[in-house]
């Protein structure tokens, strides 16, 4: 059964007198529990496509359905709730709060503070191999460790879908591949649906499905 479906997606931006088609007529189907890699050079539209699927932006035309919910038609409030309940986001820039420890950065996502929530923080840090670094500030963590904190933060609300936008872009190749391996394990062991944007071809070997984008179109 199709879990994520996009039809005739178009996203346009104005650049002076010119109209830019950042995403241009894209269609895709994705089953629950799949790992999708979206590959393309800088400026190809791959991050824009991810933002549309994740409900961070709305298309100029076209539709997106997630678990039979047409997210292109629901209100901003309902879309916010859907993102909170179903999605976890990971970005190229780790977006950690520098004055908070690794554990506190994850706790900041949780609305309530309780013993069970603190236990969940420990569990997600363990999932990414950082339980012994829980009380370290971001400045005391390597780039790879900071990205693992960002992954743990994305997992804390137990999302069905993980959307990762160039999560290895600021990392060396060896560290970057270890981050992709974590996402691959979350997909295979924890049955998370993963959508990964990258400009690196090596991520293809981890994916169930790969689409390549250039100038807003699937090539």
From TrEMBL:
SMART domains: AAA. GO terms for cellular component: membrane protein complex; plasma membrane. Keywords: ATP-binding, Nucleotide-binding, Transport. PROSITE patterns: ABC_TRANSPORTER_1 (PS00211), ABC_TRANSPORTER_2 (PS50893). InterPro entries: AAA+_ATPase, ABC_transporter-like_ATP-bd, ABC_transporter-like_CS, ABC_transpr_LolD-like, MacB-like_ATP-bd, P-loop_NTPase. Residues 4-219 form the ABC transporter domain. This is ABC transporter domain-containing protein. One of its GO terms (molecular function) is ATP binding. It comes from the Bacteria.
